[in-house]
Amino acid sequence: MHRIVLALAFGIACTSVHAAEVKILTAGAMKAVVLELVPQFEKETGHKAVVDNDTAGGLAKRIEGGEAFDLAVVTPGVIGDLAKKGKVVGDSRANVARVGVGVVVKEGAAVPDIGSVEAFKRTLIAAKSVAYIDPASGGSSGIYLTGLFDKLGIAADIKPKAKLKQGGYVADLIANGEAELGLHQISEILPVKGVKLVGPLPAEIQNYTTYAAAVGTEAKQPDAAHALIKLLTGSPAEGVLKARGMERPPS
Question: Do 171 and 29 form a contact (C-beta atoms < 8 A)?
Fold first, then answer.
């Protein structure tokens, strides 16, 4: 009996020694994807995942500032810059998902016409207020939309009625009545209650945000980080991505 107790105690002690925290930095929509895969990741590796989310620009600044992490899931551009600066292992990079921008209104509101570029422009001009991510916060959708408004010649129309979100869900501003129309990545619209996804931007002006994963150069748990990349690029992630309006990037 004593031997059994000692063996169990030894096993628990060994597990606690080998188990470790794996710090994962995620940008935008990838937080929800990673969190859903965390239970499987923890079961397979025996480690505990700690997930922290920020905008792509915010993560870039934090990592460049010396923040410790094991795995970063952010835009390919940021990963490329970090690799040049020696912050991530360049050949560990893998593109894992992409998502387009969609239009959102409050549940029960009239559904606007966004079926063409011209219809989309008319809808934006007619809206009393338009919400999107503040480009100054480093959010990829906000940066793209600011350029798109200029390109479409409606920046002056949008500016006085813009409702800028520093981070999180733009659709929250629609749900609580702070804005009439919202523009954000589709994966960031679907989880919010009280709103309706009108649809994606017209194909001619659609912008996809691609997410890539890479292991930190000074990762304390590099093997676990590689295991999570394998999970993110494997079949277990397929259903998770689809449910959030995301898809695999083209090869």
Answer: no
Q: How do residues 110-135 score in pLDDT, each as one tens digit?
A: 999 999 999 999 999 999 999 999 99
Domain locations in the chain?
2-98+211-243, 99-208
- Homologous superfamily, domain 2-98+211-243: Periplasmic binding protein-like II (3.40.190.10)
The mean pLDDT value of the chain amounts to 91
Q: Does the domain at residues 99-208 carry the CATH identifier 3.20.20.10? A: no
pLDDT of residue 139: 83
pLDDT in tens, 3-58: 544 444 444 444 444 679 999 999 977 988 999 999 999 999 999 999 999 988 89
Rounded to whole angstroms, the Cα distance separating 40 from 38 reads: 5
Spatial distance between the Cα atoms of 245 and 30, rounded to a whole number of angstroms: 12
Q: Which tokens sit at 244?
A: 């959030």
CA gap 62, 46 in Å, rounded: 27
* Residues 6+ away with beta carbon under 8 Å from 187: 28, 29, 32, 99, 244, 245, 246
Residue 18: φ, ψ to 5°: -80, -25
